[in-house]
Design goal:
It is a single chain. The chain has 632 residues and is mainly beta. The protein is 5% helix and 36% strand. The strands form twelve sheets. A six-stranded mixed β-sheet has the order 19-18-23-22-21-20, with no helix packed on it. It has a five-stranded mixed β-sheet with strand order 1-37-38-39-40, with no helix packed on it. A four-stranded antiparallel β-sheet has the order 2-44-43-42, with no helix packed on it. β7 and β8 form a beta hairpin. The two termini are 24 Å apart.
Length: 632
């Protein structure tokens, strides 16, 4: 295993001088002792090669230390862990050195709004706070955050920590000091604005650093926001390109002749001509999920969200390119290929979930695949070089809105879902309720990221097992006001069978589109998973348990209650030769919005409150990082 013993600052300078800095982050990802990006690596695989904790000893895990964030509401995302950070000497106003420079391992921790960032010294036995960044944001952004005040994490690159604040401000912080040239801790190295909260545009996603660029997307599809993804220079904050989800080719960065959809050119202004009139200007397609990157192809992958409004009758057409998987050139932003998972969405099935890059043998051929678990309940496997659709199968047996995805290349409906009209919200019409549609608007999986285990070839997927009654109604657009146009009631998918569980944790074979094993969970599994070379996969539950299962079989090997419900993503790292497992607890997010925001009406929280009302019997609010390790 390669060891990184140079200080971060020295390494960065050396690589910059050699012109090779762009590869630094890629190299750091190869060191499993660290967790250097929001999803672990460029490929979104969320797997660790650490193996000190195994199926044989994981039951011995105990709480090693905890840290309270001091913030309530939902704690999504995960910390970063960077080794060998050089902390500079502290010099007082009289020029006297009060603390000498030193090298240490640092954990970078974030919170929901107001998006505080902590840097914790992992070599210090008391985990001293090295610095803290507390941005001053206008609290008026909170009421326009759709589904809690969550933030999904930080990014690292070029010696900087990047934070996308709720108010659509992207800031670059010095990883060693949190400040710019020793100035105030609340003064970033640079900051840029990429949205307008007065129109309902907010930010909940983690930024991602790929080579010399930091990418960030917007949220606010429920406010008629027009989605986009932006690339900024990591050093200066200069905008390098921006690609919209809807609109003319020059704004979507689509080449009508070279950008393909299922192997065919998309044609001129495809982001306009599948909308009625100017509806595309309020088109949604926001980009608040996770991003991945293939350095060999130089392509960035991500998904765009729901079209606005939720009422499909008000926006006839396929509504491209909402609900779409994108492959863009990192340097130019030009779209290589697109694939729309849910044309003319009628159920709020965003396609923002992570795209995982894994090389697999498909049909006897080694293939560069992209694997995506869509909110619509289908697990997709595509050729990531060209967007060819290889596999598309249901990863939750309750899914009923479509019978299948047409995989016949000679068919006129190739690549499209074959709808079951009984669950079409458009077919039933406005002010009429479509009953029993599965999944609900939460999807069979929301943003909670899956993990890929190379030892078994399995994808470990946290899922929702929830259905809904959906009533669309006509709504008018007003900037900064909700533009939803639907009322939703959610309930357990198998309630007619007497079942009450609303979550499953599954293992998935993406080569065949088959569920290998399933563990039922009382509530939706809203926590990101991590698999390890120790044969163990970790995830959290809404009632607050950290769990460990045997990756091969799904057998539960360990559970421990944390102070609050878990919607954070589990990570693992190593310090001083010892492996740790860390997770943020702090119930909230869409599934826990009732608890987080004090909502009581069953249809509140865009329909989530009623389905998760009993959460209050098991957990309460509170943001706490809990770190586990094997006892000495």
């Amino acid at each position: 295993m390669r060891k990184f013993r140079l200080s971060m600052s020295v390494c960065a300078l050396a690589l910059a001088a050699s012109g090779a800095y762009a590869d630094m982050l890629l190299e750091l990802q190869k060191d499993p002792r660290q967790w250097v990006s929001p999803t672990g690596d460029y490929a979104n695989r969320r797997h660790s090669a650490l193996k000190q904790i195994t199926t044989a000893n994981v039951h011995k895990l105990a709480v090693d230390w905890q840290f309270s964030t001091g913030v309530l509401r939902g704690h999504e995302g995960a910390p970063l862990v960077i080794h060998d950070v050089t902390i500079p000497a502290v010099v007082d106003k009289d020029g006297k050195t009060t603390n000498k420079a030193f090298v240490t391992d640092v954990m970078y921790l974030h919170t929901p709004f107001p998006n505080v960032v902590f840097a914790l010294d992992l070599r210090d036995p008391d985990h001293k706070v090295l610095w803290k960044y507390a941005p001053q944001q206008d609290a008026s952004v909170v009421p326009v955050m759709c589904c809690d005040t969550v933030n999904r994490g930080l990014a690292y690159g070029d010696g900087k920590i990047f934070l996308a604040q709720a108010d659509t401000t992207l800031v670059a912080l010095d990883a060693a000091t949190g400040a710019s040239s020793g100035e105030s801790k609340d003064k970033p190295i640079w900051s840029v604005k990429f949205g307008d909260p007065s129109k309902g545009e907010t930010s909940t996603a983690a930024p991602h650093v790929f080579k010399d660029k930091v990418l960030v997307g917007n949220a606010g599809g429920e406010y008629g926001v027009r989605g986009h993804i932006s690339a900024y220079d990591v050093k200066t904050g200069a905008l390098l390109w921006r690609g919209y989800s809807t609109g003319p080719d020059e704004e979507t960065l689509i080449d009508p002749d070279k950008t393909t959809h299922l192997g065919k050119p998309v044609g001129k202004d495809s982001g306009i001509n599948t909308w009625k009139g100017d509806q595309w200007k309020l088109g949604g397609g926001t980009t608040w999920g996770w991003y991945s990157y293939d350095p060999e192809l130089n392509l960035v992958y991500y998904g765009s969200g729901n079209p606005s409004t939720w009422n499909p009758i008000q926006r006839p057409g396929d509504n491209r390119w909402s609900m779409t998987l994108w492959a863009r050139d990192l340097d130019t932003g030009k779209a290589r290929w697109v694939y729309q998972t849910t044309p003319h969405d009628q159920w709020d099935y965003d396609a923002v979930n992570e795209i995982m890059l894994v090389d697999q043998e498909i049909g006897g051929k080694k293939t560069k695949t992209a694997v995506h678990f869509d909110r619509n309940g289908f697990g997709y496997t595509l050729d990531r070089t060209n967007g060819e659709l290889l596999v598309a199968e249901k990863f939750d047996p309750a899914v009923n809105w479509a019978t299948k995805i047409d995989l016949d290349k000679s068919s006129k409906t190739y690549g499209r879902p074959i709808l079951d009209e009984r669950f079409s919200t458009e077919a039933h019409g406005e002010d009429e309720t479509t009953r029993g549609a599965c999944p609900t608007t939460l999807g069979s999986k929301d943003e909670q990221p899956a993990s890929y285990d190379p030892g078994t070839g399995l994808f470990l997927v946290p899922t929702n097992h929830v259905c809904m009654d959906f009533e669309p109604f006509r709504v008018s657009y007003s900037a900064g006001q909700p533009y939803v146009g639907a009322t939703v009631e959610m309930f357990p998918a198998d309630r007619d069978k007497g079942e009450t569980h609303t979550g499953n944790f599954i293992a998935w074979d993406a080569k065949t589109g088959k569920i290998v094993w399933t563990n039922k969970e009382q509530f939706s599994v809203w926590s990101g998973a991590v698999s390890t070379d120790g044969g163990v996969t970790f995830y959290g539950t809404l009632e607050g348990y950290l769990k460990a299962v045997d990756t091969k079989t799904g057998k539960e090997l360990f559970r421990r209650k944390t102070p609050s419900g878990i919607i954070g993503n589990v990570i693992t790292y190593e310090v001083g030769g010892k492996q740790y497992v860390a997770v943020l607890s702090g119930v909230g997010g869409w599934a826990g919005i009732g608890l987080a925001a004090g909502l009581t009406k069953s249809s509140d929280g865009l329909g989530a409150v009623g389905n998760y009302r009993s959460l209050s019997n098991y957990t309460a609010l509170g943001g706490v990082l809990t770190v586990f390790a094997l006892p000495e």
